[in-house]
Amino acid sequence: MAGANSDERGTTERVLALLGLLQQRQVWTGPELADRLGVTPRTVRRDVERLRTLGYRVHASQGAGGGYRLGPGQDLPPLLLDDEEAIATAVSLLVGAGGAVADAGDAALRALTKLDQVLPARLRHEVRALCDAVESFGGGRTPVDPKVLVTLARACRDKVEAGFDYPSGNEVRRRMVEPYRLVASDRRWYLLAYDLDRDDWRNFRIDRMTDVSARTRRFRPRAAPDAATYVQESVTSRVYPHQARFLVHASADTVRAQIPASAAVVRPRGNGLCEVAGGAADLDVVLMHVLLLGHDFQVLDPPDLRRRCRPLAERLLSAGTTSPVQETTES
């Protein structure tokens, strides 16, 4: 029985080695594969049939330039990566998760979570060292620890509770949450989670978290708000003492290109119009930002902001028509 298990294990390892070779190069001849694997061409043919049974499309052709070639499958098959390939893939995914590739952050993070699950410990250290050597500038997100991202992504995927220390006022408190989604803005990473102590949904800035850990206790998912919408509305409006809404005479796509997603929510209203909602400590600041977009607009809310438009317009008109005061110098 032990001998049979050993033979089966040897066959499995050899078939995996064959798959790795086919993924390295476009075409291999039978004798080349036999020589690399230390077997006969007949064994190579049998192992190729085993790969086909597993769903890999291995094509064989005769004549000059012929040989074995791995074709695309109907489903994405497992990839075999050597150490250098695994490190390069992990670092590339981290860069993508950080926002270097447009609209790829979430997909990159999901792929990184899967790769991290099977990455040997010796390679994790190398990936971390390489990531520490990467910098970015110009519109990049606030840096976060890749290990924290992976830990939270796993907790969201596995539906297990998570804990972390988080600043609240002048102190740092331990927060226990049911993590739901990671959300990336143009500036930061956020976690949408159900706060078990406050019995409500909250979003947390990941760069402010410390001592992050995932527990083994699973939870039953609750009916949750749309993650991206909830976080965007929170960071653009709910955190400020004043909120305002405007009807802008331009398309939503045009205005979104002018306003960072972390600054305001832009919703299409049809007929080439859109609604802009944002917040600030001073409503005049919001009014000036919308004015500088260069489009006609109306104030929807709050009513007090409508009354501020005329005095502001009069000051601007006066600034453009009044002759400048002549400067005098003392003799």
Fold and architecture overview:
The chain has 331 residues and is of the alpha+beta class. It has four domains: 9-71, Winged helix-like DNA-binding domain superfamily/Winged helix DNA-binding domain (Arc Repressor Mutant, subunit A); 83-132, no CATH class; 146-229, SH3 type barrels, CATH 2.30.30; 240-320, Malonyl-CoA ACP transacylase, ACP-binding (Alpha-Beta Plaits), CATH 3.30.70.250. Helices cover 43% and strands 24% of the residues. The protein contains eleven helices and eleven strands. The protein has helices spanning 2-24, 30-37, 41-53, 83-97, 105-118, 121-132, 146-158, 227-238, 252-256, 283-291, 303-321; strands spanning 57-61, 67-71, 160-168, 171-184, 189-195, 200-205, 210-218, 242-248, 265-270, 273-280, 297-301. The strands form three sheets. It has a five-stranded antiparallel sheet with strand order 6-5-4-3-7. It has a four-stranded antiparallel sheet with strand order 9-10-8-11. The chain is elongated, with a radius of gyration of 29 Å.
List the helices and strands and how they pair.
Elements (H helix, E strand, L loop, with lengths): L1 H23 L5 H8 L3 H13 L3 E5 L5 E5 L11 H15 L7 H14 L2 H12 L13 H13 L1 E9 L2 E14 L4 E7 L4 E6 L4 E9 L8 H12 L3 E7 L3 H5 L8 E6 L2 E8 L2 H9 L5 E5 L1 H19 L10
Antiparallel strand pairs: 1-2, 3-4, 3-7, 4-5, 5-6, 8-10, 8-11, 9-10
Structure keywords:
4 domains; five-stranded antiparallel sheet; 331 residues; alpha+beta; SH3 type barrels; Arc Repressor Mutant, subunit A; 24% strand; 43% helix; four-stranded antiparallel sheet
